[in-house]
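Page 42, continued from yesterday. The earlier attempt failed because a stray header line got pasted into the input along with the sequence. Redoing it now with the clean sequence only.
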Amino acid sequence: MQKVKNIIKFLIFIVYTIAIFLIKNPILIFMMFIIDVIIFFICKLDFKNLLYNLKWASFIIAFTIIINIVFDSLYMGILFGIRLIICYFTTYIFSKNMKIFELAEVIEFLLYPLKIFKINSSEIGIIISIAVCMIPVLRSEIYSIKNNLISKGQRSGISFIKNACKPLIISILKKTDDMEKSLIAKAYK
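This time it went through. Structure tokens are written below.
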């Protein structure tokens, strides 16, 4: 029964997210925002954590707004920014209500018909689970590298990015190697 609930949650999340970007009417978009706020409070989620995580996505949202303003109009830029914020809000709510292994199970179930083409859906589920698990790890690595460079007197700019990329790539490769070893140790082929 829980598996069916998770599948329904996932499908609603996908349809809702697609609808955010297909709806053109600003009133309906505002209604979607209100729905997200209501669901947020029903689920009793932490508002400070939402804002903290939104801080990480704010650069991408601002960049997208600027690109839309430059290539289209101010109205479309603001509307697209609001859509991204609502999408982020929806994704945050979804991620707090579904565990990673449940998400992998749902994806594996939904992609099961790909077995006709000899594609292993369980491997796709595991890949997505690992990718989702790595997001907070990478965020903390970036934060740590940034603080280390600042404490060494490095100023922001091109050299800052260059000096941050090398340890980040090394860290990613080490973590990937550790994950590979743990999957082998668990006899996963």
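Notes: The CA atoms of residues 153 and 179 lie 33 Å apart.
Reminder to self: strip header lines before submitting.
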